[in-house]
Write a structure and sequence with these properties.
By secondary structure, the protein is of the alpha+beta class. About 35% of the residues lie in helices and about 25% in strands. It contains five helices and ten strands. Strands 1, 2, 3, 5, 6, 7, 8 and 10 form an eight-stranded mixed beta sheet that branches. A two-stranded antiparallel sheet has the order 4-9. The longest helix is centred in the first third of the chain and has 22 residues. The N and C termini lie far apart (about 55 Å). The mean pLDDT is about 85.
Length: about 200
């Protein structure tokens, strides 16, 4: 038998925990946090939950996969606020079942932005005209999915709505640095390099 001492599993686990805690404290301090901010990890259960969700979501490997149900009702039905679906059939396109997604750019070389109408045309041509129900299915699983650097918005032009003022809008997943949320953006706006589309992965 070797005379070398075996390391205690308890000591090893404690050492790992200490290193993780030190890294977390350093990150909070680097962000300008105080001792009180650090103590909140112990006292604020909601904060601990958010940290756990963020760790799990950022560690998810592979592309996002949603369970799409075209017959499901809208989670956020803008028709109840007087909006209209410009093309009701577009929202129900696609078969039910799992759908693996990928991000898709719509700008071409040398472009900094394009019109919303051109964005919709290119989305259709790229097979990336998913709609609001796809966005809502995405949010159920990937609210805290961290996008590639520089990506802040995902347009879903498979659903086009007209508000009470007559403006045409599309649903848009918006990244606030910690989570995604569902918004609606005017097609008359310019669409830029921080915007993306979603399409089924082949």
């Amino acid at each position: 038998m070797s005379g070398q001492k075996k390391s205690s599993q308890f000591v090893s686990a404690f050492d790992i925990s200490a290193r993780i805690w030190k890294s977390l404290v350093n990150s909070i301090q680097d962000a300008g946090g105080s001792d009180e901010d650090i103590r909140r990890i112990e006292t604020d259960s909601e904060l601990r939950k958010k940290i756990g969700e963020l760790v799990v979501s950022t560690g998810t490997s592979g592309p996002p996969t949603i369970d799409f149900d075209p017959s499901a009702p809208f989670a956020r039905d803008m028709r109840k606020e007087g909006w209209k679906l410009e093309d009701p059939t577009s929202e129900f396109a696609g078969e039910a079942g799992p759908l693996t997604l990928e991000l898709c750019e719509f700008l071409e070389s040398g472009e900094s932005c394009i019109s919303g109408e051109e964005m919709v045309r290119r989305a259709i041509g790229k097979g990336a005209a998913l709609g609001q129900k796809h966005a809502e299915a995405f949010l159920k699983k990937y609210e805290r999915w961290v996008p590639p650097k520089g990506v802040r918005y995902i347009a879903l032009p498979g659903t086009i709505l007209r508000d009470s003022d007559g403006d045409r809008l599309v649903p848009c997943l918006c990244w606030d640095g910690g989570r995604w949320w569902l918004g609606f953006d005017w097609l008359e706006n310019d669409w830029r390099g921080s915007d993306r589309l979603l399409r089924p992965r082949k």
